[in-house]
Amino acid sequence: MPTPAAVLCGLGTSLPERSVSNSGLIAENQLDSDEDWILDRTGIAARRLADSRTSTGDLAHAAGRAALDSAAELAGAPVRPDIVLLATTTPDHPCPATAPEVAHRLGLTGVPAVDLSAACAGFVYATTCAQALIAAGLYARPLVIGAETYSTTLIDPHDRDTAILFGDGAGAVLVRAGTPDEPGALLTQDLGSDGGHADLIQVPAGGSRRPHGTGRSDRYFHMNGRAVYAHAVRRMTNSARDTLRSTGWRPEDLEAFISHQANQRIIDAVGDRLGIPPAKRYGNLRDLGNTAAASLPLALADTAARRSVPPGARTLLTGFGGGLTWGAHTLTFPEARPHSYAPHTHHGTGHNTGEAPR
Ligand code: UT7
Predict the structure, then answer these.
(1) C-alpha–C-alpha distance, residues 349 and 107, integer Å
(2) Average of per-residue pLDDT across 188-196
(3) 276 CA distance to ligand 1 middle (Å)
(4) Which residue's CA is the closest to the ligand 1 atom numbered 20?
(5) Among 171, 208, 282, 326, which residue carries the largest CB count within 10 Å?
(6) How far is residue 146's CA from residue 13's CA, in Å, rounded to a whole number?
(7) Quick check: helix, strand or coil at residue 319?
(8) What residues line ligand 1, using a CB cutoff of 6 Å?
(9) How many Å apart are CA 133 and CA 129, to the nearest integer?
(10) Would residue 284 be called left, alpha or beta, if left means φ above 0 and alpha means ψ between -120 and 50 degrees?
(11) How many CB atoms neighbour CB 354 within 10 A?
């Protein structure tokens, strides 16, 4: 029997309703910044921000439900995941993990469920785990979710270095065992980390190293933007090259490039170094900002919703985040139509907003 391939067969998203423009954010948070500076230096024009009652689990649940409905539509029958992997840096609680409650709310009580923490690279780590579980024959239908609420948890609203960058949201993919010639097949992957630079992106307190810290600032997300920028470009470029080599693809063979949505200048620098033209670069950074572990599934679903890329097209995903962590996947573009639901603050299923996923 050949080793089964992992095939993306359902796409789901969930976003907070409130969209805040650069000028709105500057006014609201009294930031010493400028809307044109933010757009020019990052490519971000707006972001969705969760209200204080909406948790990461609420968004993850709605995106997961949407991915299951998307998969059911494609399959013509309901699809039941056999494991749930939730990539997040902003879980509902320090303990327990958020994934078991999300699984329970999805009607999957009893199914294994676990959180994975790799900051903005969390989604590529989680899809690689799903791929490995399928290849090993241990699980056949992993539900992979990336969900974050940075704005209500880790971000100091008055810190212009970080508040301008991050937005909230969740994206999910249902993965199933299949064959590499199907649309949505994950082909090869590359993952890496460098903990020698753990200090470049860090929340100093709240963990066992410094449980309490000395002030409010220690509980917030700190980033050395310039150093992270340089690492992001170098690590994503190298990781993409390794993955393309394993697949036997040249950059010019690619039909779509979807990078972690952190900064348009980073995306363009990686695209330029790889020789991927701007017309093949897809994403939704302008409207959503950096949604960390949710960024790649949100960008993938947005690209699918716009029908910008045909099913089966040769696609490259790259991710990068704190840790440092990074990774890349080659895949053929999935054929599932994305669904999008609003988050439900209280337990229960999400309701369809009818809006196209962003
Ligand atoms: O998702 C995890 C990965 N995260 C990332 O990949 C983020 C990587 N880093 C970045 O995206 C960029 O470094 C930033 C967007 C964070 C900053 O952009 P930059 O081009 O690296 O700016 P800079 O820090 O070099 O600052 C340039 C200038 C400075 O002024 P002077 O010294 O040239 O007069 C800053 O004081 O821009 C100023 N500046 C700002 N001005 C208005 C820095 N931040 C702001 C701001 N508004 N928010």
Answers:
(1) 10
(2) 98
(3) 25
(4) 41
(5) 171
(6) 9
(7) strand
(8) 33-34, 37, 41-42, 120, 160-161, 164, 225-226, 228-229, 232, 262-263, 266, 290, 320-321
(9) 6
(10) alpha
(11) 8
Does the pLDDT value for residue 353 go beyond 60? no
> For the chain, which domains are there?
1-342 (3.40.47.10)
Q: What phi and psi values does residue 119 have, to the nearest 5 degrees?
A: 50, -135
Strand duo 339-340 + 325-332: pairing: unpaired
Q: Tell me the angle at which helices 35-42 and 22-29 cross, rounded to the nearest 10 degrees.
A: 130
Exposure class string for 329-349: b at 16+ Cβ within 10 A, else e: bbbbbbbbbbbbbbbbeeeee
- Stretch 275-287: mean pLDDT, rounded? 98
Q: How do residues 39-77 score in pLDDT, each as one tens digit?
A: 999 999 999 999 999 999 999 999 999 999 999 999 999
SS3 228: helix
Q: What amino acid positions are annotated as catalytic residues? A: 120, 260, 290
CA 34 / ligand 1 centre spacing (Å): 12
Q: What was the pLDDT predicted at 346?
A: 57
Q: Is the pLDDT of residue 115 over 50?
A: yes
